Each structure stands twice: as C-alpha cells, then as structure tokens.
C-alpha cells in the first residue's frame, strides 16, 4: 500500500441535500487530508449529459483553494444559475454536480444534485397532455 492510498478528498452539499432551485445559494464544504501538501484544490460547479451519444460537460463556475495545508476544510459558495434544468429521459439525462480536483497528488471527489424549479427533476415522457387533448 502506498502513502497516496491514505489521501482523502470529499465534497459535501449543505445538509446532504440533493435538490436545489435556480438562483439558490449553494455552500459546498470541501474536506481533505493528504500524505503531503497538495497543490491548489479546484472546486467546480458543472453540468453533464449522460446517455446515448457524446457526453457533454460544462463548467459553470469555479473556486480555488490555494496553498492548502496537508489537511483541512473550506467552504466555497456558488449562486446556482437559472438553467439548464436537470432532466431525465429514455435517451439522455442532464445532471448537476460539484467536484473538487487536485492535480498533485492526483485526486478528485464529486457529488451530484438536481437543479430545477421546485427542486424536482424533470422526467421527460411523463408530462401529461393538457386537458381536452392537444390544440
């Protein structure tokens, strides 16, 4: 077992929540403990598509924890954008997340969440037609 196997990097969302609304303030906690002083910890707010075809990913915002100690905890704050909303369909889904990445030693941690009105993921194909049918 190498020294690096004891390295830890974790990202926590407030109250372990898994769903948020657009415009909400997201305060992320990053915890780390490494066997040697890490390089900058890059914290990224992103969305990613999954499913058939090519995965798309877009980093929407980022924060940097510069010159961190060998172990520590820090909070990063993001204001969640108005769009795109989280959705899930038969062929593709869009998921939001926050990740912390350290280049040296190479390490990453991620947690995912829903971003949508009323904090409820949009389920494609489950939308009921309007009363009286389509017009």
Helices and strands in order, then pairings?
Elements: E1 8-12, E2 19-20, E3 25-33, E4 41-51, E5 57-65, E6 71-79, E7 87-88, E8 92-102, E9 107-115, E10 122-123
Radius of gyration: 18 Å
Report the portion of residues in β strands: over 45%
Shape: elongated
Sheet with the most strands, sense and barrel status: 7 strands, mixed
Structural class computed from helices and strand pairing: mainly beta
End-to-end Cα distance: 66 Å
Number of domains: 1
What does this structure look like?
- The chain has 135 residues and is an all-beta fold.
- The protein has a single domain (3-123), classed as Sandwich (Immunoglobulin-like), CATH 2.60.40.640.
- Helices cover 0% and strands 51% of the residues.
- It contains no helices and 10 strands.
- The chain has strands spanning 8-12, 19-20, 25-33, 41-51, 57-65, 71-79, 87-88, 92-102, 107-115, 122-123.
- Strands 2, 4, 5, 7, 8, 9 and 10 form a 7-stranded mixed β-sheet that branches. The protein has a 3-stranded antiparallel β-sheet with strand order 1-3-6, with no helix packed on it.
- The radius of gyration is 18 Å and the shape is elongated.
- It starts with 7 loop residues before the first strand and ends in a 12-residue tail after the last strand.
- The model has no long low-confidence stretch (mean pLDDT 90).
Would you kindly provide a brief summary of this structure?
With about 140 residues, the chain is an all-beta fold. The protein has strands at about 10, 20, 25-35, 40-50, 55-65, 70-80, 85-90, 90-100, 105-115, 120-125.
């Amino acid at each position: 077992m190498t020294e690096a196997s004891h390295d830890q990097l974790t990202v926590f969302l407030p109250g372990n929540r898994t769903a948020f609304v657009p415009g909400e303030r997201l305060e992320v906690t990053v915890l780390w403990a490494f066997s040697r002083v890490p390089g900058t910890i890059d914290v990224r707010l992103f969305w990613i598509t999954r499913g058939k075809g090519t995965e798309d990913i877009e980093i929407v915002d980022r924060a940097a924890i510069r010159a961190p100690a060998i172990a520590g905890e820090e909070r990063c704050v993001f204001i969640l954008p108005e769009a795109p909303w989280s959705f899930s369909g038969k062929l593709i889904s869009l998921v939001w997340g926050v990740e912390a990445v350290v280049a040296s030693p190479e390490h990453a941690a991620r947690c995912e969440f829903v971003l949508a009105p009323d904090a409820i993921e949009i389920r494609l194909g489950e939308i009921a037609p309007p009363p009286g049918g389509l017009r």
